[in-house]
Amino acid sequence: MAILxxxxxxYRSADGTDEVKAWFDGGSKQRRSRFISRMKTLAQLPRNxxxxxxxxxxxxxxxxxxxxxxxxxxxQQRPLGxxxxxxxxxxxFCAREKGGKFVPLSACKKAITRRDEVLKNxxxxxxxxxxxx
Amino acid sequence: MPSGLHYSEAFIxxxxxxxxxxxxxxxxxxxxxxxxxxxxxxxxxxxxxxKELGRRAGGKGQNVISRLESPDYGKESLQTLLEIAAxxxxxxxxxxxxxxxxxxxxxxxxxxxxxxxxxxxxxLTGQAQAxxxxxxxxxxxxxxxxxxxxxxxxxxxxxxxxxxxxxGT
Lengths: 133, 169
Description:
Order of helices and strands of chain B: HHHHHHHHH
Radius of gyration of chain B: 22 Å
Number of helices of chain B: 9
Largest sheet of chain B: none
Number of helices of chain A: 3
Low-confidence stretches of chain A: none
Strand content of chain A: 25-35%
Structural class of chain A: alpha+beta
Radius of gyration of chain A: 14 Å
Strand content of chain B: under 5%
Largest sheet of chain A: 8 strands, mixed
Mean pLDDT of chain A: 96
Mean pLDDT of chain B: 86
Distance between the termini of chain B: 39 Å
Helix content of chain B: 55-70%
Oligomer: heterodimer
């Protein structure tokens, strides 16, 4: 059995909503299944094998964030997050990408605000609810 | 999860819906093909560029290999996969297994898990000889104590078949 090298966490808003699960539940079956698949794949790979096709480190105004990359419903899906521990990644905000820009345009700003909240208070995250194996 | 099992009950329950299941399989297969091509290309004893793999796979452009290494692509033909496998001097296997087998085979996508040896006649004939010797030993009730002679070692593939037939296995 493949060993899971990573654990994932998800941003939880002040009212207790798991924002990543809410995004997941509100998506199509294709988006849900592809998200499960990509998380399972990433969980098995060492960080140096999170290639650009699967994950990209962001720079500029998104510095400190990374995007999980996959296509579903003919839309580039971009869950944004950061490395919150040695083998832990926290997903903060689920954006899309169109024409080289995030939708919404404020995606990085929102994700960074959330990251700062999480860094102050880890209890604003939940463990990823999905079973990855 | 019991040792040796490649999935948990919770994981399987996530795939209860047929549409989710079909999409999951498609994405896992596409992702595995993409990661496998890249892993084989970058394997230490090859270390090929995308351009080099394209050249060896029947003169494909670097952009074609780049597409094949994208988990979101998934439109490669069987012929293309045969040509890519042949470029690595590896066979291709397409199967429709039962679920347990599929989970087992799909487990592990790291470079280490996807490393593969190209065709190597010395290695493969050596493996065949080792199997032949194991079979021969298993067929000896008391092994060397019975005064049996060492099994003959053959070097050509057709003779290995003959030797197996002679020992009645």
